[in-house]
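Entry type: protein chain
Record version: 2
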Amino acid sequence: MFRVTEKTREKTSRPLAVFDLDGTLADSAHRQRFLERKPRDWDAFFAAAPQDPPLAEGVALALRSTEECEVVYLTGRPERCRRDTVEWLAAQGLPEGRVWMRRDDDRRPARRTKLDVLRRLARDREIHVLVDDDELVCDEAERAGFRVVRARWATASAALKDAQEREGRT
């Protein structure tokens, strides 16, 4: 039988801070080369993710967010990358939190998939903030009434932005 403790009640009543991964917490610049090829090499792009260096600004913000929020992660990475992703988050000392990932066969643009998850989360919990580097995701989230912090601390990749929007891969 599940027993509600004070700690459980506090966790479920705290607002959520929702963090993107690539370009927000993880520096994926070293693997952009796999997207600049024709055809794009998605397997190599995702296989290289465990070697991503952390982005200090994003990590610091996630750690500060734990003071008033429960941290969760919302990424466009496919579900098949879950193990590598969870291990990477732990290796960086990031807060434990639920990781929302795209189904392996979902090719919708990130702005659609992420907004769907945000709306689902908002049914039961207050969303304090979304932190994301994708301008289209941020625009859609703001239009839907969510507070957004635009992660502008990493170098943007034209190939990744095109892939996010046209191919729905991350």
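Comment: The CA atoms of residues 53 and 152 lie 16 Å apart.
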